[in-house]
């Protein structure tokens, strides 16, 4: 583990990226835990208000992101400064993207169905940064052996292929499979080869003159939603909390 860390993270200069990702994920988890406690009326935490205005945590998140970003640029290759600003940036990004849905809708939708978009964006962001750390950007390592070059080339080809599968799944109206397929290749492959969902770009273009394919797609979508909607919602509720019927202050 130590050799891998030195060879693939420290030597190519990706330690700040690892620190930023760790801070990002931990900030999201801690923030979600705190907001759920506030919502339940438990613990010492309360909403922050100034003059009757609810200050969302995306506000300090933006400030920390700006400080971390500009600080990292100003620090150059200073090891300690670069690491500190990377952590600050990760914390700020975690706070901002936890309320991504609010920024997208310009409305407090944190505890609504629309608010689940924040969780999906956080998962996708963490997955993409994780791919960079795992070898998608395999530059900066000196004196690579033939085996290491082959391994890194295989990683790049695998990720590129998986990305294409994810794009096909996305065109078939399978947003979650496309997002999670970035991390788990099998998910993207399954989403790419199975029937498109009704109303998706793929279905509108390719099923337009194929009534049997349209009927099969409708039937499959109905059966899939009936079977998996319950477990899927339960998992989402476990991660992000159950949504309300209407948006409101946390």
Automatic annotation (TrEMBL):
Keywords annotated in UniProt: Membrane, Transmembrane, Transmembrane helix
Membrane-crossing segments per the record: 15-34, 55-77, 83-106, 118-141, 153-170, 177-196
Signal peptide positions (record): none
Keyword Cytoplasm applies: no
UniProt-recorded name of the protein: Integral membrane protein
Taxonomy of the source species: Bacteria, Bacillati, Actinomycetota, Actinomycetes, Kitasatosporales
